Amino acid sequence: MMCLVSRSGRDLQRYDMGRRLVVGCIPYRYKNENGELEVLVISSQKGHAMMFPKGGWELDESVEEAASRECFEEAGVVGIVECELGKWMFKSKSQGIYHEGYMFPMLVAEQLELWPEKNLRQRVWMKVEEAREVCQSWWMKEALDVFVERINPPTFIEQDFLNSSVDIS
């Protein structure tokens, strides 16, 4: 049985040198037999911005557990949290303080009909290019770029070309 209430409050969240530690995910799936990649974006609670699920890292959970919980609470998806995409420092728009954000990809195994923040957020599956355009956070866009590069590495021919110093003059 799953709890349908989001954790709230910041008194049990992790901080490092005054920076709140934030964890997020880029939920993704392969849409059809062609293997078309889609990512899931959600609206902010006030509905003015699109982003990936993210929130505070609680004291009683691992970073991967926090990422998984945020996806469940905010986007209503569960799946496999994969290797960290990176760490970013960013300034909170609402409080004007710095946060340290960790992002992970999550291969979605199930999309739920009921989840804790269903009445607060919209969720939309879209192509990577569309998600990059609508995402409001620069650091989440950078995480998306890292994810795409990881999932679509250059072919051997492209790597040879990129690594060569061919003089075409």
Question: What can you tell me about this protein's structure?
Answer:
The protein is of the alpha+beta class. It contains four helices and nine strands, in the order βββββαββββααα. It has helices spanning 63-75, 128-134, 138-151, 156-163; strands at residues 15-16, 19-30, 37-43, 50-51, 54-56, 77-81, 86-91, 98-111, 123-126. Strands 1, 2, 3, 4, 5, 6, 7, 8 and 9 form a nine-stranded mixed β-sheet that branches. The longest helix is centred in the C-terminal third of the chain and has 14 residues, at 138-151. The chain starts with 14 loop residues before the first strand and ends in a 6-residue tail after the last helix. The model has no long low-confidence stretch (mean pLDDT 85). Keywords: Hydrolase, Magnesium, Manganese, Metal-binding. One of its GO terms (molecular function) is metal ion binding. InterPro entries: DDP-like_NUDIX, NUDIX_hydrolase-like_dom_sf, NUDIX_hydrolase_dom.
**Tertiary shape:** globular
Range of strand content: 25-35%
What percentage of residues falls in helices of 4 or more residues?
Answer: 10-25%
Major sheet: size, sense and barrel closure?
9 strands, mixed
DSSP strand tally: 9
- Helical region count? 4
Strand-and-helix sequence, N→C? EEEEEHEEEEHHH
Q: Which spans have pLDDT < 50 for at least 5 consecutive residues?
A: none
The mean pLDDT is 85
Q: Termini distance? A: 67 Å
Class of secondary structure makeup: alpha+beta
Radius of gyration: 17 Å
